[in-house]
Design a protein that fits this description.
The complex is a heterodimer of chains A (581) and B (183). With 581 residues, chain A is α+β, with helices and mostly antiparallel strands. Chain A has two domains: 126 residues, 2-Layer Sandwich (Beta Polymerase, domain 2), CATH 3.30.460; 345 residues, Cytochrome-c3 Hydrogenase, chain B (Orthogonal Bundle), CATH 1.10.645.10. Chain A has 21 helices and 15 strands. In chain A, α8 runs antiparallel to α9 and α8 packs antiparallel against α15. Chain B has 183 residues and is mainly alpha-helical. Chain B contains five helices and three strands, in the order ααβαβαβα. Chain B has a three-stranded parallel β-sheet with strand order 1-2-3. In chain B, α1 runs antiparallel to α5. Chain B is globular. Classes of the chains: A alpha+beta (581), B mainly alpha (183). Chains A and B meet through α4, α9 and α21 of A and α2 and α3 of B. Bound molecules: iron/sulfur cluster. Iron/sulfur cluster (SF4) binds next to α2 and α4 of chain B.
């Protein structure tokens, strides 16, 4: 395989400004007026067909040596080649325009860039030329400014609980909140007012959270769907830039809150790559166990809610699936004391070793779970209604899936055997035997089958992981990164000093950047971190699978009946915390 | 309001009637089917077999605010969502109660930033606060029993006047920003 950077430099000698390496990922900086040509070349001739991540870095406060060119804003693109095992390439481009940056829109090359660019416009104020529909996506329409710019304060109450009803400050600021009347009543662009336009959400039993959909209907047929997201936007990225590296682990739990362990894992792996360290083998084994348990738990929530939405009999399945999920939560509780927001992973390992009773209980659970999965399948697949409601609903072709940046079971449900656990193994996934289930159906039923099979595969991985879990340390032994154990503090002055330094200063990776992704239950979940050498990230970008996957909802639902929209929301498997961050 | 507004404030008929009404109200508090963030997952769990909220008469999560008595604010309230929550609250019929589930709904929690309202009590009145991030299902059930105790002591006249709510939230101070060139 040719080196993509070399090929680029040969083809576009004046476009390439800089080449480099971002913690192991080849990185190339191109001039923004050549971006589209370069992009088309990368997609068509070098096979970088999947746009994983698109974001912007505000270099305002970055030390000059680290700046890319002298533009204030830099666009960052992470491209993958699905055919070449998810080979990753980072493309950066300095954006002209100073404080009012402009960039060419890449939606013509990777249609999935649409929402990412809207997000960058919303949070950074970058104008993308040629974007079909550039407007705010997460923040309310009348929000002042762009919150992720470095000259914007974090916001919030300076002293918690200090502001009360009667404070002038509260009254004055209170007026800035979006009033109900300010919600745009206008019909979204591209919708025909002769059709029926229906609002669904943000409070709706089947939108799986606070998703709002504006649906254009011709009779019962869906003509167009326009999602309105951001009702759960919590400012994770900005928050992450204000806390130390180790403290952001706790925040990651709260993004995709049905798969906390996976979020933890994705984040700590990114930071570990930035620091150039690796967790000890036992920690990696424990991480795999937790990640796969979490995958089953997350898929169970999907199955339960999907079945509940679709049929009345689904209520029984909700009870069953949550019963099994409780068993998993019990296992989590044994390991770390928490059920949902686990925060179990640490930079350099995991917070505690597994208790001795864990593995026997896990093995017991696996036998139990295996049988339950077949039971669910019998309940659902022998039910003609279930098949009728899913088959042929929400078709997604291979090509469209990749173009939209869809990953995870959605992509595999369209017949693409792409799974980062296999393509780019982490935590020793290459030592386990497992299959990557795919389905060529490309519809909701295919995705259902893929997720069911994935739970089976997770059980298979867990059996191996339980049997091969190595002995040894569960945390890295590096006093510069991992705080010393409690009992050492009483014995060693050195340990005390390290402890003090770690808790007062925190971990400081050298200047650099990293993009690291894992295969979360819903797809590719990645963190892009820019470090300026201080104890908190300079820029923290979270690439979440639900955000990219939800984008395909309009494509999936056109032409279907209104009632099928609920099926389609279920089959995309979104968690709004993951979409809105 | 109906005839109870015409009853005297005390007296044997009023208090006996109050007892009967409160007894029936407290044992069938129907929550609004509506979740915001992580806490909502624990709220759903509370409704499933192991924790079984039905033991307290609250298993009927209603999707329409018109049919609900209790709003469990399960999760963080963003600035964009705040007006929706206020509207939902206003659409609920009296008598109505609110449980702020979790530290986010109670006080903003870990998200002291531009996006999140620092406690839902800035926009609607709250009856019971449940600490935790997220609170365990047992904690939510305990909050429910506390609410039941509160309902026991209520008077009919308490619900005569509809509760007024006001909108308000904190935003970052942007007044000292330099103007953007060309904007
Ligand atoms: S209190 Fe914690 S668990 Fe609940 S919504 Fe907030 S962050 Fe999530």
């Amino acid at each position: 395989m040719t080196d993509p950077i070399l090929a680029l430099s040969n083809r576009f000698p004046d476009a390439v400004l800089e080449t480099g390496d971002a913690s192991g990922v080849p990185s190339v900086t191109v001039a923004s007026d050549h971006l589209l040509d370069v992009g088309r070349f990368l997609r068509d001739e070098l096979g970088f067909d999947l746009l994983s991540n698109l974001t912007v870095v505000d270099q305002l406060k970055l030390p000059p040596v680290q700046k890319t060119a002298d533009a204030r804003f830099v666009g960052v693109y992470h491209l993958r080649s699905v055919a070449r095992d998810g080979e990753l390439l980072q493309v950066k481009t300095p954006l002209p325009g100073g404080d009012n940056p402009v960039a060419p829109s890449v939606t013509g090359i990777w249609p999935g860039a649409n929402w990412h660019e809207r997000e960058a416009y919303d949070l950074f104020g970058v104008r993308y030329e040629g974007h079909p529909d550039l407007r705010r996506i997460l923040m309310p329409d009348d929000w002042p400014g762009h919150p992720l710019r470095k000259d914007m304060p974090l916001g919030g109450e300076r002293v918690p609980f200090s502001v009360t009803w009667d404070d002038d400050e509260f009254k004055m600021l209170g007026r800035q909140i979006m009033q109900p009347e300010q919600t745009p009543q206008a019909i979204p662009k591209g919708m025909d007012s002769r059709h029926m336009v229906v609002n669904m959400g943000p409070q709706h039993p089947s939108t799986h959270g606070v998703l709002r959909l504006i649906v254009e209907l011709d009779g019962e047929r869906i003509v167009n769907v326009e999602p309105d997201i951001g009702y759960l936007h919590s400012g994770f990225e900005k928050q992450g830039e204000h806390v130390r590296y180790k403290d952001f682990v706790y925040y990651t739990d709260r993004m995709d809150y049905v798969s906390a362990m996976q979020n933890n894992l994705s984040y700590v792996l990114a930071v570990e790559q930035l620091l150039g360290i690796e967790a000890p083998p036992r920690a990696q084994g424990i991480r795999v166990i937790m990640a796969e348990l979490q995958r089953i738990a997350a898929h169970l929530v999907w199955l339960a809610t999907h079945a509940l939405d679709i049929s009345g009999t689904g209520h029984a399945l909700l009870m069953y699936a949550f019963r099994e999920r409780e068993e998993i939560l019990d296992l989590f509780e044994m390991a770390c004391g928490a059920r949902l927001t686990t925060s179990y992973m640490r930079i350099g390992g995991v917070s505690d070793d597994l208790p001795p009773a864990f593995i026997p209980r896990l093995v017991e659970f696996l036998d139990y779970m295996d049988a339950r999965l077949d039971e669910y399948r019998a309940m659902l697949e022998k039910n003609p209604l279930w098949r009728k409601r899913l088959e042929g609903i929400g078709p997604l072709s291979k090509k469209d899936a990749i173009a939209m940046g869809v990953t995870g079971p959605m992509l595999r449900g369209s017949g693409v055997a792409y799974d980062l656990r296999r393509a780019r193994p982490y935590c020793g996934y290459d030592q386990y035997e497992f299959d990557i289930p795919t389905s060529d159906l490309g519809d909701s039923y295919g995705r259902y089958l893929v997720r069911m099979a994935e739970m089976k595969q997770s059980v298979r991985i867990l059996r191996q992981a339980a049997a091969m879990l190595p002995e040894g340390d569960y945390l890295l032994d590096d006093p510069k990164i991992v705080p010393p154990k409690r009992d050492l503090l009483d014995q060693s002055m050195e340990a005390l000093i390290h402890h003090f330094k770690l808790y007062t200063e925190g971990v400081t990776p050298g200047p650099g950047e990293v993009y690291r992704a894992i295969e979360a239950p819903k797809g590719e979940m990645g963190f892009y971190i820019v470090s300026d050498g201080s104890a908190h990230p300079y820029r923290l970008r979270i690439r979440t699978p639900s955000f990219a996957n939800l984008q395909s909802i309009a494509m999936l639902s056109k032409g279907h009946l209104f009632s099928d929209l609920v099926v389609i929301i279920g089959t995309i498997d979104i968690v709004l915390g993951d979409v809105d961050r | 309001m109906g005839f109870e507004s015409k009853l005297p404030e005390t007296g044997v008929i009023t208090t006996t009637l109050e007892q009967v009404v409160n007894w029936s109200r407290k044992n069938s508090i129907w929550p609004l089917l509506f979740g915001l963030a992580c806490c909502a997952i624990e709220m759903i769990t509370t409704g499933t077999a192991r924790h079984d909220i039905a033991r307290f008469g609250s298993e009927l999560f209603r999707a329409s605010p018109r049919q609900a008595d209790l709003m469990i604010v399960a999760g963080r309230v963003s600035n964009k969502m705040a007006p929706v929550i206020k509207r939902l609250y206003d659409e609920m019929a009296e008598p109505k109660w609110v449980i702020a589930m979790g530290i986010c709904a109670s006080a903003g929690g870990p998200f002291n930033n531009y996006a999140i309202v620092q406690g839902v009590d800035k926009i609607i009145p709250v009856d019971v606060y449940v600490p935790g991030c997220p609170p365990r299902p047992e904690a939510l059930l305990y909050a429910l029993t506390m609410l039941q105790k509160k309902i026991e002591t209520e008077h009919l006249r308490d619900h005569n006047a509809p509760k007024q709510t006001e909108l308000g939230v904190l935003l970052p101070d942007t007044s000292d920003l330099p103007p953007l060139p060309g904007a």
